[in-house]
Every structure is written in C-alpha cells, then in structure tokens.
Amino acid sequence: MAAILEERGLDPAVVQANLERAAASCGVPFGKRTHTYNSRRANELGKWAELKGKRDAFDAAVFRAFFVERKNIAWKRCCGRSPPRRAWTPKKPQTS
Hints:
With 96 residues, the protein is an all-alpha fold. It folds into two domains: 1-36, no CATH class; 38-83, no CATH class. Helices cover 49% and strands 0% of the residues. The protein has helices spanning 2-7, 12-26, 40-51, 55-68. It is globular.
C-alpha cells in the first residue's frame, strides 16, 4: 500500500491520518490500511445481494471486513459467504 501511495507522490502516514480523521468525524470504525485488494468480485456479489434485497447488509459487512478487520475482500469467503456459482446476469429490458 505504501509503495502505491508513494508512486503517486503521497505520504502514506498522511493519507492514513486523513482517513482515520474522516472516519472518526463520522463515528465510523476504521483500521490501519496496509494492503489494497481487487474488489471486482465484491462488487459483483454486491449486485447479487441487491437483487436479493440485501444490499445494505452486504455493504455493511464488506465495509467492516475491509476497513475495520482489514480482510481481503477479493477472497471469496471474506464475508461469510461464497458468491453464487452462476455468474450474475442482468435482467433483460422489457420491450413494449
């Protein structure tokens, strides 16, 4: 994480302090960030959760897993569930 920030001319300690301050001002728990992960699968699973009417609960679980517990949200079981075996397919638009 530090190398990514430094490549962009950012001081990791300053970025961390800014994130902690922003989270504290909102009363949101926040753990120290040391890694970044590919969140594509989490985003896909979030869409599936939305279709099941569970998006808010899913988002809260992923937020806690990533920002508080520092879990790898790219790992398919980070939030207690595996993604559905079948790829998510959007509903076809209705035609008149």
